[in-house]
Amino acid sequence: MHIAARGTVEIVKYVDVAIDTRSDMVDDPFTYASDEDSVRVGMKVIAPFAGSRSRAGYIVAVRDTLPAELKGKSIRRIISVAESDSLPEGAVGIALWMRRRYFCRLIDALDCFAPPVDEPRRRVSGGESAAAISVGHPGCRPSMLPELTVEQKVAFAELKSAVDAGAYAAYLVHGVTGSGKTELYMRVVAEAACRGRKAIVLVPEISLTPQLTERFAERFGAGRIAVIHSRMSGSERWTEWIRARSGEADVVVGARSAVFAPIDDIGVIIVDEEHETTYKSDMTPKYDTVEVALKRAARAGAVCVLGSATPSVVSMYRARSGVYNLIEMKERYNGTPLPRLTVVDMREELRQGNRGIFSSTLYDSMKTNLAVGKQTILFLNRRGYSTFISCRSCGYVMRCPECGISMTYHRERNRIECHFCGKYLPLPAVCPDCGSGNIRHFGLGTEKVEELTKEAFPDAKVARLDLDSTARKGSAAKILGDFGRGKTDILIGTQMVAKGLDYDNVSPVGIIAADVSLNIPDFRASERTFQLITQASGRAGRGDEVGEVYVQTYSPGHYAVEAAATDDYDGFYDTEILVRRALSYPPYGDICQITVYADSERRAAEGAERFIAGLVLLVGNEERGNILGPRKVPPRRQGGDSGYSLNIKVMPGRRRVYERALATLKKKINTDKRSKCRIMIDINPFSST
After folding, report:
1. Structural domains in the chain plus CATH codes
2. Sheet holding 54-63, edge to edge
3. Considering the entire predicted model, what is its pTM?
4. Residue 7: pLDDT above 70?
């Protein structure tokens, strides 16, 4: 604990303040005096800091008397309080937990709950927000609700009972695609609202927020919905933050960051498509949204509902172990059978002379269905035009000069780009290594699929939905809107098209290359493959007719592909959990990724070795076998420091030991100016780099 010395005032309270500074050297709170009796935990204050300067911060503790170790010290007084920017009740407790769990600075965790900074602040006049879509029915139990299926009724009765109890409960809703999970969510939110409690509804993709918002707005009334996600402008985010903070909106819908919505008295938190990797933050603090949602629900005495057609292995393990309550919905709402799924062996297609991206069966199905007005979705989880640039003469592959990762060709911008650090270069005319003109782009991305689809179906209207095509604000909503209105015949996309889209005129769905996700550097590769095939397949046949799905793969015998082809989640889980247990991967432990950065490769490598030596001293030499690495990794950004990474398998009974050891080493290294190194820690990352 630091103290803020000097000054004599008439003191009413003593407060510990987390100062807003990005230095690990001052990460612990400072103690100040206050002559205001109304100060509370979570308040934003301005306090003197470092001589005559002042800084903002948040109160993390309030007490009537000084701790014994500070008796006789001269304590400085806080300057002012910014009540309007204060954090919701319970935010500080969550932030303190995040600091321990994700090894981040306390102020970084607190800032997750804070309003947008340095942005225009518009006065909220009431009524509908700019993000609202349409006016719906007022009241907490609108009339003319759709009839529930038997499975929905059973599920709703159990969740309603949990909401009525007013205590923390966690549920995993395993419902097949099209089983009516969204209707279930809305009913549960309505039950919480009837008891004067609020709701947070999370979706994995920003592009899906408008579609879900529209459904909630139609049900509850747009004025009751606040929308929060990172692609909104500063003024929009501020307006929605204030609407949620003031209580004008009692339902918050949004992507990952909406889990920190500034609301009190939470009754329910919904995490739709809980298995998605986008719920894991790749920026500091590197939090897991599902973990934060569960922790926030527990502190609020709320119900947390995790929903998915393909639950993560970790979530299903917890449900089967009794940590979560399990609800299963195995039938589609409209009674239509799940789509017919055909696995196409692309090795056989190649043997028959087909070198195109469409198998003969997928092509014929698309042609037949387009002729009768059906729409098609083509899925490939790789954007760009081609995946790498190589010389046919010498074998040279164009790699990012900063990261060492192969660069992707984007034809629309006529340049090659690094998808890791963002660096881009013009497409070379000759090989930089041997000077040959035989340099070509290889591989397949969504941009190239779009081009080849237009060539194969020249009369069809084709659109693409990926990170590149949705970079401009509002573009995703327009692309999906046109598809929903039937203006687009074929929609091509990355995983953005595999999540949550609900259109009843889609058949077939074509999965162009199911093998892409099998080869990612992640222990979850098989899980991701099963999920993506199943989720993409679920976009087909959501109307009255059975849909068709074609899975093109060079690995038709892989257990993830076979299980997805037969919609056998249990079979996949039973195989995958054995692999996880044998290798001590989650849920049988945590994977901690430690990355050491320095201004030279030599210093980074030496720093990694010193870190390992220090860690072994703290956790015991018997743990050395659970420390994997180190190895070189790409820099964090263009022109950034060199890095070395290592992974640690942390068994459940050793988590506290590692928490203390890693926190100690991180602080020691990051505050030592002589070490020339900095470390970053990521818990259960979604890649090995």
Report:
1. 2-111 (3.40.1440.60), 150-329 (3.40.50.300), 340-383+446-579 (3.40.50.300), 384-444 (no CATH), 590-683 (3.30.70.260)
2. 2-3, 30-34, 13-19, 54-63, 44-48, 80-82
3. 0.84
4. no
